[in-house]
């Protein structure tokens, strides 16, 4: 009977693995079983998310002169021999300083099937700490993108921007999502899904092939809290500790003034929140992308993955705001209440995950409003 149940489980995995869409948790586990994902140490019990896999730092790190891409004819290891300033151990923990660039070989390696490709993104908590991360692969000409059939190691570029951080072997700063086919919803499909499931609380919904538009929330009573700005010259943040640091030591509150606008100072880091509450149905995943850069020189949302069940009633949610990590570049920039700052792209899942974001997991940001990372209290 147990053998039969095992065959049925493998069969379900094989069936869903052949469908187009974002691979769910059980198919990510199947990639490990089949050798498509390889790790030198045992997998963490909570490492697989509903539609992504957390990636873990390996035991060594390299301080490098500058960010780089290996290009079509080079491995990352080749480039590290040229650009690394020094190598150091992460086994007992190490501090990564702001303004510096580091490259860390990851524990996970890929041997992807010929029809499966992958993309990476910082984890939500990583983005909310203003840690700039990008995944590198051998011969890559783009960051965070792994072509179908890629076989080889993975590396993480890390550059803390506001706070110095303490990391160690096994720390998880980035995540990877696996795709088969073209699962992104068109404007027509997205409009139909919104009509069925009401994906956003907005009364007037701006939908295009680029996704559902999200705007900034700077409303409220005069003097009410609308955001945070990261302080400079703070203590370090241990990325593996929760509720360990007082908010006031690291963040300056931003209160509503005037008609609902703020001026983003160049190279300062802000935590703001979307005006709309959103949710992701169990059979879909979503990703935040920047709005048209022609509207202003600012970057929004370092960490873009939204798992199935985010803000959804099936996972104990009632709609969740999208927390926005915002940084202006070069010149001061005025953000006004209701200004569009990003778009949420929805993609079909190859199958519904066994566990959803929220009720089935110890999810940090379900039903969130304006919320800092899990490290602060």
Description:
Residues 188-376 form the 2'-deoxycytidine 5'-triphosphate deaminase C-terminal domain. Pfam families: DCD_C, DCD_N. This is 2'-deoxycytidine 5'-triphosphate deaminase. The protein folds into 2 domains: 2-180, Deoxyuridine 5'-Triphosphate Nucleotidohydrolase, Chain A; 187-348, Deoxyuridine triphosphatase (dUTPase) (Deoxyuridine 5'-Triphosphate Nucleotidohydrolase, Chain A). The protein is built from 6 helices and 26 strands. The chain has helices at residues 2-18, 25-34, 76-83, 124-128, 187-197, 247-250; strands spanning 21-22, 37-39, 53-56, 60-64, 84-89, 94-96, 101-111, 117-122, 131-137, 145-146, 151-160, 165-167, 172-180, 207-208, 211-215, 225-230, 237-238, 251-255, 261-264, 269-278, 284-290, 298-300, 305-306, 320-328, 333-336, 340-348. Strands 2, 4, 5, 7, 9 and 11 form a 6-stranded antiparallel beta sheet that branches. Strands 1, 3, 8, 10 and 13 form a 5-stranded antiparallel beta sheet that branches. Strands 14-15-26-21-23 form a 5-stranded antiparallel beta sheet, with helices on one face. It is globular, with a radius of gyration of 21 Å. Mean pLDDT is 88; it is low at 1-15.
